[in-house]
Specification:
By secondary structure, the protein is an alpha/beta fold. It has ten helices and twelve strands.
Length: 301
């Protein structure tokens, strides 16, 4: 136990040093820009006509925030489930009927298609490694070795990914494109922080023609810890050259909100057309992007 405690303390010390170095790097970059006569561009972000929040950048979650979640991941989860169950059946193994929705946090309509999702469930908040492990565990429970289980899941995922790429099932969330255009016109820096892998996120944004709008994309594969830890947001801020305290984060899960709070973001905006209880850590909750307005930009200094 003493060794475990010492290891935990060492890891925490390393994390503290890393955060201090990140803060120093951000401050140095800001000082250099000011020395060169470059003042930060700041714009007022208003929610429901309230007081403007001065921000230099906005970071977005991707799925459920930029992309309509059900059209993308509902589709993908159905593709994977069909291939996964077919591979199991070929081995003479059957899953309990209707198990996938309970495993990944989705709801099905009368036709058996994904129609809704749990904003705080595995499909919405988990990394690809998380989802692979959940699916592989079911194979293991049916008698396959862990190696066989992971192989079956990975091969099923690869097939589902190829079909999703062929379909390009990414649809922008209503109102997000005009809002992004507002942000760019005001000179705000924009970035993506997603539990998805970075290259997959870039590809999905490219399908919709939105990739050029974002200066940085940080996926779960680029950081030691995914949401709700602050690692992704801090890395994105470092790449953008801004302090976390000067950005707003927009997301559809409480993991996004907790990430923003842990990093010290100026404003954590939840987007959900449900009760506020689904995003208890949000500073504010909007039902649509029409509730956000970006005011004319100005420079600090």
């Amino acid at each position: 136990m003493a060794e475990h405690s010492a290891l935990s303390e060492a890891l925490q010390a390393l994390q503290d040093v890393s955060e201090q170095e990140l803060q120093r790097s951000q401050e140095q970059q800001r000082n250099q820009e000011q020395a060169q006569g470059k003042q930060p561009t700041v714009a007022g972000l208003k929610v429901d006509g309230g007081k403007p929040w001065d921000v230099e950048a906005i970071l977005f979650d991707k799925d459920g925030t930029i992309i309509d979640f059900v059209s993308m991941w509902g589709n993908w989860s159905e593709l994977l489930a069909r291939r996964y169950t077919a591979r199991l059946a070929a081995k003479g193994l059957l899953l309990p009927k209707g198990i996938f929705p309970s495993l990944w946090g989705t709801s099905l309509d009368a036709a058996g298609n994904v129609c809704a999702y749990d904003r705080n469930g595995p499909l919405a908040m988990g990394t690809m490694n998380d989802l692979n492990a959940i699916a592989a565990l079911q194979c293991y429970k049916l008698g396959l070795s862990w190696g066989e289980s992971m192989q079956l899941v990975r091969e099923s995922k690869e097939e589902a990914d190829r079909e999703l790429k062929r379909r390009k099932s990414a649809i922008p969330l209503a109102g997000v494109v005009p809002f992004i255009e507002q942000c760019k016109k005001a000179g705000l820096k924009l970035g993506i922080v997603t539990a998805d892998d970075t290259e997959a996120a870039r590809e999905h944004l490219e399908w919709m023609g939105l990739l050029p709008h974002f200066s940085v994309i940080v996926g779960a594969d680029l950081v030691p810890r995914s949401k709700p830890y602050p690692d992704m947001l801090e890395l994105a801020c470092q790449k953008l050259g801004v302090a976390p305290s000067s950005i707003a984060i927009i997301g559809d899960t409480d993991g996004d909100m907790r990430m923003g709070q842990a990093a010290g973001a100026a404003l954590c905006i939840g987007i959900a057309n449900q009760a506020a209880s689904v995003l208890p850590s949000a500073d504010v909750i909007i039902a649509s992007y029409s509730q956000l307005v970006v005011e004319e930009a100005h420079t600090e200094g």
